[in-house]
Fold this protein.
Amino acid sequence: MTPVQSAFRALADPTRRDILLMLRDRDLTIAEVAQNFDMTRAAVKKHLTVLSDGGLITVHPQGRERINQLNPKGITPVFDWLSYFDGFWDDNLSALKIAIEKDEK
């Protein structure tokens, strides 16, 4: 799976997007993340694994705990992929604007 596919897979689930928002404020253990959801710790761990596989978070051991940290650079493959479409729409909308203005004259 490519980095962009892994990142999109990670972003596809609303629970994982919520976890990313939580991690933007501070690093959290699995238990701290789990406190915010009505699911088992094992289910939260699976979500964190998908986020880690997608490059959106990093996980660091600290004693017996595993600290989950947002990886801001992990979203770069998604931005790079979307940037193609940004340029596509800019070019096509500019051409449409020129065509409309030409017809109005």
Observations:
- Residues 4 and 76 are 9 Å apart (CA to CA).
- The chain has a mean pLDDT of 91.
- The longest helix spans residues 76-104.
- The radius of gyration is 20 Å.
